[in-house]
TrEMBL record:
Highest taxon, organism lineage: Eukaryota
UniProt-recorded name of the protein: Diphthine methyl ester synthase
MF (Gene Ontology): diphthine methyl ester synthase activity
Protein species of origin: Penicillium decumbens
Pfam families, per database record: TP_methylase (PF00590)
Gene Ontology terms describing biological process: methylation; protein histidyl modification to diphthamide
Amino acid sequence: MLHLVGLGLADEKDITVRGLEIVKKAERVYLEAYTAILLVDKVKLEAFYGRPVIEADRELVESGSDDILAGADKTDIAFLVVGDPFGATTHTDLVLRARELGIQTNVVPNASIMSGIGCTGLQLYNFGQTVSMVFFLENWKPSSFYDRVRENVQIGLHTLVLLDIKVKEQSMENLARGRRIFEPPRYMTVAQCASQMLETEEERKEGVYGPDSLAVGAARVGAPDQKMVVGTLKELCEVDMGEPLHSLVLLGRRTHDLERDFIRQYAVNEATFDASYAKYYGASS
Ligand SMILES: C[S@@+](CC[C@H](N)C(=O)[O-])C[C@H]1O[C@@H](n2cnc3c(N)ncnc32)[C@H](O)[C@@H]1O
């Protein structure tokens, strides 16, 4: 059987009892290592699980899935995914491939950033569509996220923005020369995200949000040193939230008083928070 096991958000101890039992008995254990990272390294996982863990990069999962599935008709293979296996990560293609090969599948859920973000004090009921922010390049600044943010803003809902991760990336030169040399991993910060959002607004000029719009930055959700900050997008461009992973929530207009009181506790500056809030937020419809 192919088991997709959610690892939760922070460290080796966030796996569920059911997940750990599967890891201990599986023939091979893969760790999906490109859509999110745990806040501890592989060695720590292996020590806690008492099993060797094979890192599965995008290439292996997307082009070499038959290697992962080899033998899974007779024995158990565990495929570990940070967060929840189906939370903002789609491994449905791997499940479909397994089914095509007549391999049974089993999913062990866990906490996801999609629910963990509730730690900000913002109600999950009040979120609209989730969007992703990719690292902009000189001549490639995709802004499709902006249209979805607009739809959320129009109905007053919060927008969860998930931030880009680049692992096992090759420079253009190494790629062109076919050299398998990889750049160090990169994780987008809340400050970079806020700045790219403002750059997009300046480009599109549709007034979906602006420098005074409020947003919440959340870093290392679920870890003992999780950090949250609320401020205007302009303020968040300067904020240092420390180690990855980071997410950002653009505040919706229909913020409830309880949500406001909760997030105000971690305002970069209470005066600018109050001024912006009084101007743009708290509408009941
Ligand atoms: C593609 S999503 C993968 C989600 C994962 N499967 C889950 O269920 O949580 C990865 C993005 O979610 C956000 N993220 C994941 N874990 C996080 C954490 N502990 N704290 C803050 N943001 C997190 C980051 O923006 C990261 O780049």
